[in-house]
Structures are given as structure tokens and as C-alpha cells.
Amino acid sequence: MMIIWDFDRTIMDDDSDRWVVSEMGLTQLFNQLRETLPWNSLMDRMMAELHSQGKTIDDIINCLNRVPLHPQIVSAIKSAHVLGCDLKVLSDANRFFIETILKNHGVYGCFSEIITNPTFVDEEGRLRIFPYHGSAMAPHGCNFCPPNLCKGSVLNQIQDTRSENGKKRVIIYIGDGGGDFCPTLKLGEEDHVMPRKNFPLHHMISKSSVPIKAQVHEWVDGEELNKILLWLINSSEKQTIL
Ligand SMILES: [Mg+2]
Ligand SMILES: [Zn+2]
């Protein structure tokens, strides 16, 4: 069984980009430039601003280390990992923010892969953020998704590799946002989608004119997510070998 997690407002209750922007005093500049740059480039621009203000990578790490995770989300991640599930993050945030937060909460090692916008720290100590498609991967050509990341095309690749090995593994997809709708449409009847209740993905699923093949399970908070996820893992364990 494979569990694919969105990051912002799913693993983390807040949004990692918004967190750094507001905690590091960039809100005004962010709002000024919001209309002029795509989100991904805007975040790279924000990191340039921090660098020009003399803020270091350690300052960014300290800021990210203040991000709380719901204890039941941490517990759900650990339990799913211990039970033998393959956990991946699929997020439109960025590698540096996600890795730092997961490491700080001791769950980084539970994930086999983090698929997101790539980052690196340049020789001057500035954090650079790049689009997933266009640098790491070729353009995706999907109309639903922003140019930098189509989660649906990533899901298709994951599905291709999982059927190559002969055994088809069930996917549980957990998310909240509009960007999670494209991959949701690509899930099969044996799969599950867990949209966060009253968030955009949940509304899009409810109103969808295209039928959703996967089984839908709503959750409100970490406690409910943990309960549903463990129930799904345990009930599928009884039917088939993971
Ligand atoms: Mg999200
Ligand atoms: Zn897409």
C-alpha cells in the first residue's frame, strides 16, 4: 500500500510558504509582488530578499523549526511506516522547507520520496527555489495545474512504475487543495482519496461532473485523519498482502 501526502494544510496545518513569509516579515513585499510573479518564482524572490537583509540559512531553519505538526498526524505517519506502507510527499511547496520540518519532527525517515519543487543553497548562502517541471522534469501540458507542477502527471508516473513490478498496490491520496484534484481524477476504483473537509479539494470532488473512481473519505483534523488512515490500512491488510 502506498500513501501519497500533500504537505501544506495536510501534514502541516498551516502553509509553509505563508509561514516563512509572515514569520520573517515579508508579507508586505509578498503582497506587492503577488500579481507580477508566478508563486514559485515569487518564493525564490522572497529568499533573495531574506539574503539581501543578511538573514542566513540558519535563520530560515529556525523559523521552520517553529512550525507545529498535529501530534496525531505525526503518529499517523509513524504508524503507517511501521505497518510497511510506502509513504511519499507530493507537494507544491519546496524541498528545503519540507525536509527541514519533517526532520525537526523526527518523521523524515518515514518517507521513501519527496516529490516537490527543487531547492539548493548557492555559494553566497542564498536559498534558491525552482519549478519541478522545467528544471527537474519536462513541461506537463495539463490545463488543470500551474506550470511548475502537475501532481496528476507525477501520479501517472508512480502508477506506471507500480504496475511494472507485476503487483498493483493500492494508493491512498491525502490532500486539501485545488492542485490535488488532478491526481484524484487519476486514482482507480481500488484506491482511496482523503480530502480535508471544507477545503478546496473536498468541494471540487463534491461538485465534480467527472465521476471519481476512488473511494472518498473526508477528514477534519489530525485525529480523524489518523483514525481513518489506520482503519484503511488494517482493513486492506486483511484482504491482501501489502
Ligand atoms: Mg495542500
Ligand atoms: Zn495536472
Which compounds are bound in this model? magnesium ion, zinc ion
CATH topology of the domain at 2-12 and 70-115 and 147-239: Rossmann fold
Assign a percent range to the helix content. Answer: 40-55%
Q: In the CATH hierarchy, what is the architecture of the domain at 2-12 and 70-115 and 147-239 at level 2?
A: 3-Layer(aba) Sandwich
| Rg, Cα atoms, Å | 18 Å
The main sheet comes to: 6 strands, parallel
In percent, how much strand structure appears in the residues? Answer: 15-25%
CATH class of the domain at 2-12 and 70-115 and 147-239: Alpha Beta
How many strand elements?
A: 8
CATH homologous superfamily placement of the domain at 2-12 and 70-115 and 147-239: HAD superfamily/HAD-like
Shape descriptor reads globular
List the helices and strands in order.
EHHHHHEHEEEHHEHEHEH
Mean pLDDT: 94
Structural class estimated from helices and strands: alpha/beta
* Largest beta sheet: strand ordering: 3-2-1-6-7-8
Number of helices: 11
Brief rundown of the structure:
This protein is of the alpha/beta class and 242 residues long. 45% of the residues lie in helices and 15% in strands.
Write the layout of secondary structure elements.
Elements: E1 2-5, H1 16-23, H2 27-33, H3 39-52, H4 57-64, H5 71-82, E2 86-94, H6 95-104, E3 111-117, E4 119-121, E5 127-129, H7 132-136, H8 151-164, E6 171-175, H9 181-185, E7 192-195, H10 200-207, E8 215-216, H11 222-239
Parallel strand pairs: 1-2, 1-6, 2-3, 6-7, 7-8
Antiparallel strand pairs: 4-5
Magnesium ion is lined by residues 6, 8-10, 175-177.
